[in-house]
């Protein structure tokens, strides 16, 4: 997932503390007898899942090269190098599929991946520390950031330009102007 805010540094490459792998989908079930398998897509960039791309499967991040893709309902059918039949594909069922963080596409200015924001220190306009970004709730209108202070108290902030003043990836700091609650 990505969000759009004023930013100080380009994104797309892993920073210290960022994950090395990013989830892009989950293998669901086999399709046919030639080794195709349904990929449940969990990325904002499904068009980047293409033949020739190396992906990593499961908790061990076993590398596989994609040899074929085609749309299938709201998912994708894929074939992987070395997987020749239904039985071999069935062994991959329910494995998560990842790509390297460093291979993520460059985002437009002011847009961020969720993993870049989680753990970021949050301060207000007076530099008072409000806590850190612990989680992000994806809603239909805009994301909501869950900010948790050192006492465990949570503050929910809508991810909108009037609240999120600045995101600085280099210092891992988000400056915000919390809304006035009545």
Task: Write up what this structure looks like.
The two termini are 31 Å apart. It contains 2 helices and 14 strands, in the order ββββββαββαββββββ. The model is unreliable at 1-15 (pLDDT under 50). It is mainly beta.
Helix segment count?
2
CATH architectural group of the largest domain? Roll
Looking at CATH, which topology of the largest domain would you report? SH3 type barrels
Query: What is the helix/strand order?
Result: EEEEEEHEEHEEEEEE
**CATH class designation of the largest domain:** Mainly Beta
Give the fraction of residues assigned to helices: under 10%
Write the layout of secondary structure elements.
Blueprint: E1 2-4, E2 21-31, E3 36-41, E4 54-57, E5 62-72, E6 75-80, H1 86-90, E7 96-100, E8 111-113, H2 114-117, E9 121-124, E10 129-137, E11 144-148, E12 154-158, E13 164-168, E14 173-176
Parallel strand pairs: 9-14
Antiparallel strand pairs: 1-8, 2-3, 2-7, 3-6, 4-5, 4-7, 5-6, 9-10, 10-11, 11-12, 13-14
Quick synopsis:
The chain has 182 residues and is mainly beta.
């Amino acid at each position: 997932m990505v969000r759009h805010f004023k930013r100080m540094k380009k994104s797309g490459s892993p920073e210290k503390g960022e994950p090395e792998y990013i989830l892009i989908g989950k293998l669901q079930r086999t399709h046919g007898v030639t080794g195709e398998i349904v990929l449940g897509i969990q990325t904002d960039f499904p068009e980047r899942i293409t033949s020739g791309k190396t992906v990593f499967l499961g908790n061990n991040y076993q590398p596989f090269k994609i040899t074929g893709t085609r749309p299938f309902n709201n998912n994708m059918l894929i074939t992987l190098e070395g997987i020749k039949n239904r039985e071999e594909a069935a062994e991959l069922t329910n494995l998560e599929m990842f790509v390297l963080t460093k291979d993520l596409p460059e985002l437009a200015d002011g847009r961020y991946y969720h993993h870049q924001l989680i753990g970021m220190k949050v301060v207000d306009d007076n530099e008072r520390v409000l806590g850190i970004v612990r989680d992000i709730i994806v809603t239909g209108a805009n994301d909501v950031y869950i900010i948790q202070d050192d006492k465990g108290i949570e503050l929910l902030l809508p991810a909108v330009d009037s609240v999120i003043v600045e995101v600085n990836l280099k210092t891992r700091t988000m400056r915000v102007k919390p809304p006035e609650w009545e």
